[in-house]
What does this fold into?
Amino acid sequence: MVIIMSIDKLEEEVEKLQDEMELLEENCDSLDICKEDDGCSKCDAFKKMEAINLKIEEIENKIEELTAATEEED
Ligand SMILES: [Zn+2]
It folds into this structure.
C-alpha cells in the first residue's frame, strides 16, 4: 500500500539523517573551538546538527501522521 511504502521511505530518510548527525558529532568533537565553554554555539557542525534535528522531527511527525492514518483504515 502507498502509505506504508512512504512510511518506509521516511524511516530510511531519518536513518540517513542520523548517520549524518553522527559524522557531524565526531567532527564537532574534534574541533578546538568546541572544547571551549559554549564553543559549540559558534561551530558550523553544531548549526548543521540543529538543522538536521529539525528535519528529523518533521519527518517523525509525518511518520506518526501516516501511521495514525493507516490505523484508522482498519
Ligand atoms: Zn561543536
Observations:
- The pocket of zinc ion is lined by residues 28, 31, 34, 40, 43, 45-46 (CB under 6 Å).
- The mean pLDDT is 91.
